[in-house]
Amino acid sequence: MRNAVIGAVVLVVIGAGGWIWGESRLADRTRVWIAADPALAAAAVEPLRDPRRFGLRLSEPQLSDPALRLSLPWAEALVSPLAPTTAQLDLPQQGQLVLAGQAHDLTLQSSEARLRLAPLNRMAPDQLILTAQWLALDGQPLADSLSVEARLGRLAASAPMEARTAYDIDLKAAGVQLQVLARAGLDAGQLPDPVAIDGQLRLWLDRTPDAEVPPQIVGWQTPSLVLEAGPIKVRVVGRVIRDAGGLAEGQVVLYSRNADQMLDLAADMGLIPRQVRLLLRAGLAQLSQVAPEAALPGPAYPEPQEGELRLPILMRDGQLILAGVPVGPAPAFAGLAVR
């Protein structure tokens, strides 16, 4: 009996020591990771030292980007010993967002974030899940809800030549108020509020995300992405990549029951020149009969539903082409850095 008690005590001591060593090791590696990335900062990174939870507490974490800076009073990363590459992030309800040099109070309710890393792929993010309810900026409602799930995908033969990594994204957002962003100094276009997004998207990046150089988006593809803005509702299907000159190349097909609204949205998205909207309105019924080019790589383009109009937009050789007729130069590809 005495030996059994001694053995149990030894196991407890070893387990406690391993737990303390593991948290300390995790904190050290996190400090090195933050120090190596100029976009990240934290006043302190400390082990939780809570027997009920294994993880870290970050004091005043900060994420900086050329367009914005997000600061939080704290954040906790919880890790299960059974899944050491997956972290659940507990976030506060209040933070600060800096847009166009101006600081704004950010409020999030019921937020949740989970991050999983891929050890065999240079510890690149393998899965990211972010959900939040009722976001507000300076007390003004910004969005009713937001849900993003990004998963590391496999590169297929049809991926752009520059692509080295692909992420598949499920995106849902409801009740987004673009005018609140506009008042904060962020150009959100001319779309009417509220805005909702629901669909799937594949992003191609030119490198694996790491702490040294942020990757650039070199292409995207969607089998169905529904955009609603006020009375406007448009379904987007297509694939666009960056050509050698930095212009957009590919095909995007818009589906909508309202021709005027579809053309306005296409112009706001930069897919068609604003000056050709009036010309297109007169002939959109005929343009809608033109089938998308099936020989191009990309998703399947379905037939319009009853009452829907279809607008195929082709970008090739630096030209924007509608129904086989060039109507202007192709737009620049908006390749953004991804953190």
How many individual β-strands? 19
In DSSP terms (H or I, runs of 4 or more residues), the helix count works out at 4
- Give unreliable regions as ranges: 1-19
Helix content: 10-25%
Question: Approximately how much beta-strand content do the residues carry?
Answer: over 45%
Oligomer: single chain
Rg result: 24 Å
Largest sheet: 19 strands, antiparallel
Mean pLDDT: 82
Helix and strand run: HEEEEEEEEEEEEHEEEEHHEEE
> Alpha-carbon distance between the termini?
57 Å
- What is the 3D form? globular
Would you kindly provide a written description of the structure presented here, covering whatever features stand out?
The longest helix is centred in the N-terminal third of the chain and has 35 residues, at 2-36. This protein has a 19-stranded antiparallel beta sheet that branches. Helices cover 18% and strands 46% of the residues. A hairpin with a 5-residue loop joins strand 15 and strand 16. It contains four helices and 19 strands. The chain has 339 residues and is α+β, with helices and mostly antiparallel strands. Helix 3 crosses helix 4.
